[in-house]
UniProtKB/TrEMBL annotation:
Belongs to the transferase hexapeptide repeat family. The keyword Ribosomal protein does not apply. It comes from Sellimonas catena. It comes from the Bacteria. PROSITE patterns: HEXAPEP_TRANSFERASES. This is Acetyltransferase. PANTHER family: ACETYLTRANSFERASE YJL218W-RELATED, GALACTOSIDE O-ACETYLTRANSFERASE. Residues 4-57 form the Maltose/galactoside acetyltransferase domain. The keyword Transferase applies.
Length: 216
C-alpha cells in the first residue's frame, strides 16, 4: 500500500517518505509563490487552484496561506479566507459553498500517537521515523469560522454554523448553531432574532439584496 493510500485508509503513515514529500513540496512551493504575489495579480488564483483537489469558480485567499498537500482539500463555490490560513490536509478536507474564514484559522486533519515511542523513532542510520495518522474534516454550507479558530481532524461542522473567535473545535457541531469555546460547544441555535438587517442603509439595500433575499 502506498503512503498516500495509508492516509486515506486511516492507517499509520510516515510523512517523511519521498512519495509524500514530493506532493507536499509542490503545495509548499505554490503557497510560497502565491504569498509573494500582489493581491490584485490576476494570475494569483490559478496558483492555488492548480494544487487543490477542487475549488469553485469564485474564491479568494487573502494570504499568506499554507497548505500541506493541497490536493487533499476540496472547496465549494464562493469561498473566502482571511489572513494566515493554515491547512494541514494530510487527511481529506471538504468545505461547502458560501464559507468564510477569519484571520488565523487552522484546519488540522492530522495527528500523532500519544505514546512517545510510537510517535517518533530513530533508525540504525540515524534517521527519524515519524508516525502520523489522519482523520477527515467536513465543513458544511454557509459556515463562518471566526478568527484564531482551530478545527481538529475527525470533526463535522454542519450547515449555517458560526464558530466564535478563539475556538478549538474537537467535536461535531450541528446545523444552524452558534458555537464557541475551548473546547468548542454548541451554545444556541441561530434564529431570525440574530438578524442585523436594520444596519443596512437605504442606499445599500439593492447592493445587499442577495444577502437579504428580498425583492427591491
Amino acid at each position: 500500500m502506498k503512503e498516500e493510500e495509508k492516509i486515506f485508509a486511516g492507517k499509520m503513515f510516515d510523512p517523511r517518505k519521498q512519495e509524500l514529500k514530493d506532493i507536499k513540496h509542490k503545495a509548499h512551493a505554490a503557497c510560497q509563490k502565491y504569498n509573494m504575489m500582489d493581491e490584485f495579480d490576476s494570475d494569483r488564483n490559478e496558483v492555488i487552484r492548480d494544487i487543490l483537489g477542487k475549488v469553485g469558480n469564485v474564491f479568494y485567499f487573502q494570504g499568506p496561506v499554507q497548505f500541506n498537500y493541497g490536493c487533499h482539500t476540496f472547496i465549494g463555490e464562493n469561498f473566502f479566507a482571511n489572513f494566515n490560513l493554515t491547512v494541514m490536509d494530510d487527511g481529506k478536507i471538504f468545505i461547502g459553498d458560501n464559507v468564510c474564514f477569519g484571520p488565523n484559522v487552522s484546519l488540522m486533519a492530522t495527528s500523532h500517537p500519544l505514546i512517545a515511542q510510537e510517535r517518533m523513532g530513530l533508525d540504525e542510520d540515524g534517521k527519524t521515523t515519524m508516525a502520523e495518522y489522519a482523520d477527515e474534516i467536513h465543513i458544511g454550507n454557509n459556515v463562518w469560522i471566526a478568527c484564531n479558530t482551530v478545527v481538529i481532524g475527525g470533526v463535522h461542522i454542519g450547515n449555517n454554523v458560526v464558530i466564535g473567535a478563539g475556538s478549538v473545535v474537537t467535536k461535531d457541531i450541528p446545523d444552524n448553531y452558534l458555537a464557541f469555546g475551548n473546547p468548542c460547544r454548541p451554545v444556541r441555535p441561530i434564529t431570525e432574532k440574530d438578524s442585523k438587517k436594520e444596519l443596512i442603509l437605504p442606499e445599500d439595500r439593492e447592493h445587499f439584496s442577495y444577502n437579504l433575499n428580498c425583492i427591491i
